[in-house]
C-alpha cells in the first residue's frame, strides 16, 4: 500500500468531526464556502482525492516510456550487422547457436538444467566478440514467440552494453547488489524493442567480485527471472582469464556461450577458460570472426558445442 493510500485509510478510520479541521462560523460561510459542506462529506472527498492521487502516481509509474534503442548508433558502433544481407546471414547463423539454448531453457534438452534460463556470454580473452554476441543473441531470442529477454550488463569494468545503449548513469546491477533498499525490478529497463529489457552495469564498485559472490546476487537473479516463466536472462561478461568476477558470475548460470575468436585465441587460452566453467551443466562454444568463405558464414555457423568437442578435439 502506498503512503498516500495508507493516509487515505487512516483518514477513513477517524470520527467525522476529526476528519476536517473545525473552522470558525464566519470562515465557513465567507472565506471557505466549501467548508459549509458537512464534515463527513468533506472527508469523503479528501479520501477520494488521495485515492485519485494514488491512482495517478501508480499510473505515472506505469507510463514511463520505454527506453529507445538506437539501431543506427548500434550499427555505427559495429554492434549489429551493417546491412540487410549481413543481418540475414547473422540471423541464420544465430539460429544454430540459440537452438540448444532454447531446448535447455524449456527443459527439452538431454537432461534438465538448473537455471537454464540464465545464459552467460563470455570468452577467454578480450575483444573476441562477447558484447556483439550478447546483443545479437538477445535481439534474436526476443523475436522468438512467447519469450522475453532481459539483457544484463555483467561486464562491470567495461560496461559496453550500458554505453552502447546510452544507459550510463542509470542505476544497475552494481547498485542493486550494493544497496538492499533497491528492488531488483528498480534497475530493469523496458526498451522499445518488443520483449527486450535491459539491466545496466550501474555504478563502478571496487568490490564487484565480492558483491558477485554475495548471497544477495542469487536473490537478485531469482527476482530478475524467477517469477517470469518465459523470461530468458542473457549476460554479457568480462573475459574469463582477465577478471575474477566473470568466473563468479558463471557460477550462477545454467548455460554459458563461450565465444572464441577464430585464428586468434590460442588453444591453451581456450582450454584454460573452459576449465574455469567446467562445473557448469552446459557450455556452448562459438567460433567467431571465422575467416572461412563468406558462403559458410562469418559467425556462428561454425559453432561447435563443448559436449561434442570433448570427445573429438
Ligand atoms: N561476428 C561479428 N561480426 C562483425 N563484427 C564483429 C563480430 N564479432 C565482433 N565484432 C566486432 O569486433 C569488435 C569487438 O567485439 P566485442 O566488443 O563484441 O568484443 P568483446 O569480447 O565484447 O570485447 P571486450 O572484451 O573488450 O568486452 C567490435 O568492434 C565488434 O563490432
Ligand atoms: Mg564486451
UniProtKB/TrEMBL annotation:
Keyword field contains ATP-binding: yes
Biased composition (Low complexity): 33-43
CDD domains: BY-kinase
Region (Disordered): 7-43
Keyword ATP-binding on entry: yes
Keywords: ATP-binding, Nucleotide-binding
Entry-linked PANTHER family: FERRIC ENTEROBACTIN TRANSPORT PROTEIN FEPE (PTHR32309:SF13), TYROSINE-PROTEIN KINASE (PTHR32309)
Name by which UniProt lists this protein: XrtA-associated tyrosine autokinase
Lineage: Bacteria, Pseudomonadati, Pseudomonadota, Gammaproteobacteria, Lysobacterales
Amino acid at each position: 500500500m502506498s503512503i498516500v493510500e495508507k493516509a487515505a485509510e487512516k483518514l477513513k478510520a477517524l470520527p467525522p468531526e476529526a476528519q476536517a479541521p473545525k473552522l470558525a462560523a464566519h470562515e465557513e460561510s465567507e472565506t471557505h464556502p466549501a467548508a459549509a459542506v458537512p464534515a463527513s462529506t468533506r472527508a469523503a472527498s479528501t479520501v477520494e482525492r488521495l485515492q485519485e492521487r494514488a491512482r495517478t502516481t501508480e499510473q505515472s509509474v506505469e507510463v514511463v516510456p520505454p527506453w529507445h534503442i538506437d539501431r543506427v548508433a548500434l550499427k555505427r558502433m559495429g554492434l549489429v550487422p551493417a546491412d540487410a544481407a549481413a543481418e540475414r546471414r547473422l540471423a541464420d547463423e544465430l539460429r544454430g547457436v540459440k537452438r540448444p539454448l532454447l531446448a535447455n531453457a524449456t527443459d527439452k534438452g538431454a537432461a534438465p538444467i538448473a537455471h537454464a534460463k540464465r545464459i552467460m556470454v563470455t570468452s577467454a580473452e578480450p575483444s573476441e566478440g562477447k558484447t556483439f554476441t550478447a546483443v545479437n543473441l538477445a535481439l534474436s531470442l526476443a523475436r522468438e514467440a512467447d519469450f522475453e529477454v532481459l539483457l544484463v550488463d555483467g561486464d562491470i569494468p567495461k560496461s559496453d552494453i550500458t554505453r552502447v545503449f546510452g544507459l550510463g548513469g542509470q542505476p544497475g546491477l552494481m547498485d542493486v547488489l550494493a544497496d538492499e533498499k533497491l528492488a531488483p525490478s528498480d534497475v530493469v529497463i523496458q526498451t522499445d524493442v518488443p520483449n527486450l529489457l535491459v539491466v545496466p552495469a550501474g555504478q563502478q564498485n571496487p568490490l564487484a567480485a565480492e558483491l558477485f559472490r554475495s548471497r544477495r546476487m542469487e536473490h537478485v537473479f531469482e527476482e530478475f527471472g524467477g517469477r517470469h516463466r518465459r523470461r530468458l536472462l542473457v549476460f554479457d561478461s568480462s573475459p574469463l582469464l582477465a577478471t575474477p568476477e566473470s568466473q563468479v558470475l558463471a557460477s550462477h548460470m545454467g548455460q554459458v556461450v563461450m565465444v572464441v575468436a577464430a585464428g586468434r585465441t590460442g588453444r591453451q587460452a581456450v582450454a584454460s577458460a573452459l576449465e574455469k566453467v567446467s562445473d557448469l551443466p552446459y557450455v556452448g562454444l562459438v567460433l567467431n570472426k571465422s575467416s572461412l568463405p563468406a558462403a559458410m558464414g562469418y559467425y556462428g555457423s561454425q559453432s561447435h558445442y563443448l559436449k561434442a568437442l570433448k570427445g573429438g578435439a
